Amino acid sequence: MGTIDLLAFVAFPYLCLAVFTVGHAYRYITDRYAWNSHGSELIEKKTLFFGSYLFHFGILGTLAGHATGLLIPQTVFDMVGIDTAADTALAHYGGRVVGFAAFFGVLILLARRLFIRRIRLMTTATDFAVLFGLAFVTGVGTYDVFFGGFHVLDTIAPWIRGILTLQPDPGLMAEVPLPYKLHILAAFALLAFSPFTRLVHIWSVPLFYIFRRPLLFRRRVVA
């Protein structure tokens, strides 16, 4: 285990998670009125609809798949009758669907920002950095799930759980192929960058609408 492994798979993830946590709190306190997605749907809707739908479907499915497959130990799946082979197959085939959707969706959103002049003029350097970052993370991840074929349940999965339980073991990442490492490190970097971008809108999902009391409208009768 070398210094680079310790920096990449112990220090760097914790640094990114710290910036992610503190950065969001600081941004909310100091810049609350800019806490939104700064949408451009009033200028162009058609391309945005297809790109946004594909991306959000893919990225939400990807996050759910990562959380399920990497954070839940295989022993839990064994108890409900899902063995390692079934778990791996589900991750591979499901990952191909949601990974491709996320990657293709972000490419549409990036092309929209690049080739529609009115959208490009209102796009900041930070917006482009986010889109290129998302394209890289989802692109490498999609490549891994289509062509990687690496078994992650005994390597990446316990390493991730070790990071969250404050017991990191960088030795688990020694045999992981480079594309997988690039995907992981780029994802952590994007997490650290997210508090300073429009990605903060992920915390603004209006879930309270589901539970709020219905609004009543009464017709005013003029005597």
Q: Can you offer a commentary on this structure?
A:
This protein has helices spanning 3-30, 46-71, 74-79, 84-115, 117-121, 125-148, 156-164, 178-193, 208-211. It is mainly alpha-helical and 223 residues long. Helix 2 (46-71) runs antiparallel to helix 4. The longest helix is centred in the middle third of the chain and has 32 residues, at 84-115. It is globular, with a radius of gyration of 21 Å. It starts with a helix and ends in a 12-residue tail after the last helix.
Helical residue percent band: 55-70%
Class by alpha and beta content: mainly alpha
CA-to-CA gap between the ends?
85 Å
Shape: globular
Note the run of SSEs as H and E.
Answer: HHHHHHHHH
pLDDT under 50 segments (min length 5)? Answer: none
Give the biggest beta sheet.
none
- Taking all Cα atoms into account, the compactness measure Rg is 21 Å
Kindly state the number of beta strands.
0
Beta-strand fraction estimate: under 5%
Précis, in short:
With 223 residues, the chain is an all-alpha fold. The protein is built from 9 helices and no strands.
Provide keyphrases for this structure:
single chain; 0% strand; globular; 9 helices; 67% helix; 223 residues; mainly alpha
Question: Topology of this protein?
Answer:
Elements lengths: L2 H28 L15 H26 L2 H6 L4 H32 L1 H5 L3 H24 L7 H9 L13 H16 L14 H4 L12
